[in-house]
Amino acid sequence: MKRKNFIYYSLIIIYFLFILISFLIDFQPGKKMGMNFRINFIEMIKILPFTFILIGLFEVWVKKETVEKYLGVKSGFIGYILAILLGGTTIGPMIVSLPVAFTLFKKGAKLSIVFTYVGAAAVCRIPMTIFEVSYLGMKFTAIRYLVSIPLIIITSVFLGKYLEKRDYELIEEKL
Q: What is the pTM of this model?
């Protein structure tokens, strides 16, 4: 485990040294990487603290029994519909949906429903839909939804069943 941490931290140090040296010797690809890192880091700092606060409130306020009832093994097709609706309300980049998915899974949501939530968060977000309708039209958006949503559900079901047959295990690793 210590060797893995050493490699991990070494790679981070090498990355930042590369960026620093790129600025010192005016190496454009390295400078571009540094600027992209800075822009993305600032965006994440704006979003992630609020996301983690909301997830913390979700963990405290929403009971495990409620998640199991509506998104668990016995929820049926309604669980998939609720996961799509929940995924549609996700605001911000795709990475915001991953901690929420983890929390849903820990609270007893069925694995395939968690996958449906992640897929819906990527495809069915309300802000993205509004933007899409205004530029590409309602017909395009309706067709995309009619194709995407069933594919998300079908893929989630197959992936969930596949992992359940393989006795998947969620590994929580601390760096």
A: 0.76
